[in-house]
Design a protein that fits this description.
heterotrimer; A mainly alpha (about 290); B mainly alpha (about 300); C alpha/beta (about 240); B: about 300 residues; mainly alpha; two-stranded antiparallel ribbon; C: about 240 residues; 6-stranded mixed beta sheet; 4-stranded antiparallel beta sheet
């Protein structure tokens, strides 16, 4: 197999765009699982739900990105409700919360997935936009515009969230609650309210992530299964609690997947995220940049 | 002693039924329900007793199926060898995943099992010997006397496997291994500091669980005369294998059996009368309902009911 | 006499944070040893390193002159190191009696029948005999603490580490727990006590070490510790 430099370079370039996209869709999980320790295996399912909601809103005439932004507050509220329910039912009771919490989110993911099948059917859905379908020509390389848009949104999202978490009071409280709930209580802040708010933000971000997902490619209800691998791979590789690490980890995944796609074809690419995840878990479970 | 007598009677009944004129469909559906009895019992050994949740039951089950197919295709191996191979492959996979992730927190093990599931499917999709993505048709050998059809024979085989699985689970539960697993589930650090070799016990549970799941997968290709990756490695196996013990009750070996019989039957009815999607929805909804409202499952509800009526 | 436990230059980091910095100490057999220090000084981290739940990055730990630094916690327990947890961690799905059967089965390797007998002896000696068939959820705070100690005792330890067993308990309850620890020491068990309740530590310990920010700042008899200005500064703040 002849590995031409041009092909490799294009794969890497595409991988960078893809990687930033993966980072953006994983950021919500970085907060909910990385910081809040919630076993949120339903994160990709909520994101796919966001994709379908974007599909509906976009069909009323709105640009998909704007649709995603409009959906963010709705999903924020959804996130708050879900966390509240999870906290009251499982986290508070402490003891058996681990197994039951996991089972709960697993069941939730299935309910969302099947709900989507019942409403929309199993066929793939796409959205239309001026930037979907054409590519930017950079010399010999073609970069699809939709990837560039996703790349841009991803960067903005990552940096905004990082800034929020490090500069604002609530943001820093969220980071603190991950490390020392007791100290937070002594400071007069209510850890449950903070975690609720954080989970709401994570879910709101998932709405925009869902919009990007359907921009980047067609979606179907079972897509959440594949993204469990990609999002958890990014979050674990980054190291729990590291926001900027998410970007780095996303890039590593994106570039790896892109290269595998080019060299071995589409039947191998989905396994890259899962394979990388296993390697990280086996070799360095604390990730690259974690706490 | 009561247990073994009951078991012998049930097996005799199953055998007699298979030789009788009862409608073929009973055995067709019964085989699936019995498969779920094995899967949920196996799941519970690690998930219920030790508290480590496996989402990837399909990987162990699927690899068992493929191991059987490979042996059948390459050597014309008889069913019993296929089942042994399935168990061996399942055990090996359990050991590999376990040694890699059981040192970590429970959720990492759970995610790793999803990873194994997808990687397994990808590997089989890319392996032409077993048919790749489109799968393989299988020509079944002559059915063994005294059975009238393959389905009936497999029904009895699966009944036997179910008895084996339940007996293993029952042994583990009542032995010192079971007490150690429960200590791990209740408080892993306290268990370690009380002398429990937590990693060793978790590995044992994972290997036994995997072996049983692999064994359950082995007769499946013969049952369907067909094998293909997508359905063999579906996440749906995982959600059922998890939901059934959680609904039946995870603390006792009878819980998964109850859960499998109840939910398995419901699934058969719903799939046939409504649709497969609604079937998965029902599983998901029941899982969430029980996890939230009746965390100790049917067994727990039964215990509460008998205590309150005293 | 050779020390029972030797901690040599043990250091432990969490990311950028240094929890323990080159901590060294010796514990003599049969000693009553107190470990004090403000919150966050590294006491529980040190205990976790000794019992094996945490692995120290550098330094050595020797028990009965044999190195245990790389041993898993369950192996250390089987060698004779037992501990109680600061926040009690009972096996909540088991009865009080069954809680003790775990170490009896896994450390002492007793069958349940004999284990039950010995467990009842322990429970009687600490006043929990009537709760033997009860569950952890039915126990009061002081009873939970006693269960923690009872479970540690069931492992037949040479060294028992009591991690804030009296935290949050009132006067008479503190004395109850202290009595148990005294009795254990009289039967030959070396005890390391981590405690914030000063009068308990003073009464109990023959020797005290004070930790602050991961380092030992002073070591000596209870009287000398109490008068030490470094210790006062550590507790009252700079």
């Amino acid at each position: 197999m002849i590995l031409s430099f041009d092909l490799l370079f294009e794969a890497v370039l595409f991988g960078v765009l893809l990687g930033c996209f993966y980072a953006a869709v994983s950021i919500g999980l970085s907060v909910s699982f990385g910081l809040l320790d919630v076993p949120h295996v339903a994160h990709p399912a909520l994101m796919v739900l966001g994709s379908y909601c974007t599909f509906v809103v976009a069909s009323w005439g709105l640009d998909p990105i704007l649709a995603g932004i409009v959906l963010m507050p709705v999903f924020f509220v959804l996130g708050v409700l879900i966390y509240r329910f999870y906290y009251e039912t499982f986290e508070k009771r402490g003891t058996e919360a681990g197994v039951r919490g996991l089972a709960f989110f697993f069941g939730l993911a299935f309910i969302i997935e099947v709900g989507l099948i019942l409403v929309f059917g199993v066929d793939q859905r796409i959205v239309q936009a001026p930037y979907i379908g054409s590519s930017l020509a950079l010399g010999e390389y073609r970069l699809p515009y939709r990837m560039l848009v996703a790349f841009g949104v991803a960067l903005v999202l990552t940096f905004t969230l990082s800034l929020y978490l490090s500069k604002t009071f609530t943001g820093r409280a969220i980071k603190a609650v991950a490390q020392d709930e007791q100290a937070l209580r002594l400071m007069g802040a209510n850890p449950v309210r903070i975690k609720q708010w954080a989970f709401g933000i994570a879910t709101g971000v998932s709405a925009l992530a869902g919009a990007m997902l359907i921009i980047v490619g067609p979606v179907e209800p079972a897509l959440d299964r594949l993204y469990i691998g990609r999002t958890f791979c990014v979050v674990v590789l980054a190291g729990l609690g590291s926001m900027t690490g998410t970007l780095g980890a996303g890039l590593i995944l994106g570039i790896s997947e892109s290269i595998v796609l080019m060299m071995f074809g589409a039947s191998w690419a989905p396994a890259v995220a899962f394979g990388l995840l296993l390697v990280v878990l086996g070799v360095r479970p604390q990730g690259l940049f974690g706490r | 002693m009561k247990y073994w007598i009951t078991v012998a009677v049930l097996l005799a009944v199953a055998f007699a039924a298979a030789l009788s004129g009862v409608n073929e469909y009973v055995f067709y559906a019964g085989y699936i329900v019995l498969t779920f009895v094995v899967l949920s019992t196996a799941w519970n050994i690690l998930g219920g007793y030790a508290g480590y949740v496996n989402f990837g039951t399909g990987a162990f089950f699927g690899f068992g199926s493929y191991a059987a197919v490979v042996l059948f295709k390459a050597l014309g191996a008889p069913l019993i060898v296929q089942i042994a191979a399935g168990a061996a492959v399942g055990a090996a996979l359990g050991f590999a995943v376990g040694i890699m992730t059981l040192r970590l927190r429970g959720i990492f093990f759970a995610i790793a099992t999803v990873a194994i599931l997808f990687i397994a499917e990808t590997l089989m999709v890319n392996w032409r010997y077993v048919g790749g993505a489109t799968g393989l048709q299988l020509l079944r050998p002559e059915v063994m006397a005294p059975f009238g059809s393959y389905t009936r024979m497999l029904f009895v085989v699966m009944a036997l496997l179910a008895v084996i699985a339940i007996s293993v689970a029952r042994y583990i539960q009542t032995s010192w291994v079971g007490r150690g697993l429960r200590a791990i589930r209740d408080s892993e650090e306290a268990a370690e500091c009380s002398g429990v070799p937590t990693l060793k016990l978790k590995l044992i549970a994972c290997v036994v669980s995997g072996a049983l799941m692999g064994a359950a997968g082995a007769p499946m290709p013969m049952y369907l005369s067909f094998i293909e990756p997508a359905s063999s490695f579906s996440l749906n196996w995982g959600v059922s294998a998890l939901a059934m013990p959680m609904i039946g009750g995870t603390g006792h070996w009878i819980g998964p059996v109850i859960g499998a019989l109840l939910l398995g039957s419901v699934q058969q009815i719903v799939t046939v009368t409504i649709s497969n999607e609604i079937n998965v929805l029902v599983v998901g909804v029941l899982l969430v309902l029980f996890v939230v409202l009746a965390p100790d499952g049917v067994v727990g509800l039964f215990r509460k009911w008998t205590r309150s009526s005293k | 006499m050779d020390p029972l436990l030797q901690v040599r230059q043990v250091s432990k980091h969490f990311g950028g944070f240094t929890a323990l910095s080159e901590v060294s100490l010796d514990i003599a057999p049969g000693e009553r040893f107190g470990l004090i220090g403000p919150n966050g000084s590294g006491k529980t981290t040190l205990i976790n390193c000794i019992s094996g739940l945490l692995r120290n990055e550098s330094g050595k730990i020797l028990f009965q002159q044999k190195e245990i630094t790389t041993l898993a916690p369950y192996q250390r327990t089987r060698l004779g190191i037992a501990r109680s947890f600061q926040v009690p961690r009972p096996f909540h799905s088991m009865t009080v009696l069954e809680n003790l059967l775990v170490p009896f089965a896994y450390v002492v390797h007793l069958k349940d029948a004999e284990g039950t007998e010995r467990a009842m002896e322990i429970l009687e000696s600490i006043g929990l005999a009537d709760k033997a068939q009860g569950f952890a959820s039915q126990l009061s705070q002081v009873e939970l603490r006693k269960l923690e100690l009872a479970r540690a005792m069931a492992a037949k330890p040479r060294l028992l580490i009591s991690d804030e067993a009296m935290a949050g308990l009132a006067g008479a309850e503190v004395d109850e727990v202290l009595d148990i620890l005294f009795k254990l020491n009289e039967s030959g068990i070396t005890i390391i006590m981590i405690e914030h309740i000063m009068q308990a530590v003073m009464r109990f310990s023959q020797r005290i070490v004070c930790l602050d920010a991961g380092k030992i700042i002073c070591e000596g008899t209870p009287q000398s510790i109490v008068q030490n200005p470094e210790v006062q500064k550590a507790y009252l703040g700079a």
